[in-house]
Amino acid sequence: MFSYYEVLCGMSRDQVFGMLLMVLAVAVIIIYGWIVFFTKWSLLLLQVTGFVAVVGVFEILTWIGYMLDTTPPPKLTEKIEKKLEEELKNLESKSAEEAKEHGS
After folding, report:
1. In degrees to the nearest 10, what's the CA dihedral of 34, 39, 41, 46?
2. CB–CB of 36/42 below 8 Å?
3. CA-CA distance, 55 to 47, in Å (whole number)?
4. CA atoms within 13 A on the CB side of 14
5. For range 10-26, the mean pLDDT
6. Most exposed among 21, 35, 72, 100, judged by the fewest C-beta atoms under 10 Å?
7. Where residue 99 falls among pLDDT bands split at 50, 70, 90?
8. 3-state secondary structure 6-64
């Protein structure tokens, strides 16, 4: 069974969506360039663009800081190694005791 997109334009839905994204991106680039270079709104547009870019970067840094602050630290590998060594010793002593019982 064919989807609506395949029948209409011979492409899958993902391909149609990708094509729309490309066309939209190129249109935004052209409109943005036109406003920056050929209208009186260029300074305002550049100010808004710069502000949004700075806010976006520092918002990401804020999120990273929050995640680092609220995430509990991982257990130290030394503690884990000590626990594994203790468990290994316990298993070795148990297997030695079982060997003595079976050998007697």
Report:
1. 40
2. yes
3. 12
4. 0
5. 91
6. 72
7. confident
8. HHHHCCCHHHHHHHHHHHHHHHHHHHHHHHHHHCCCHHHHHHHHHHHHHHHHHHHHHHH
Q: Give the integer Cα–Cα distance in Å for 99 and 104.
A: 9
Q: How many residues does the chain have?
A: 104
At which residue do the structure tokens 């609220």 appear?
70
Q: What is the pLDDT of residues 72-91, one digit of tens each?
A: 877 677 788 888 888 988 88
Other Cβ atoms less than 10 A from the Cβ of 15: the count is 13
**Which tokens is 42 given?**
């260029």
* Sequence-separated (6 or more) residues with CB below 8 Å from residue 13: 3, 5
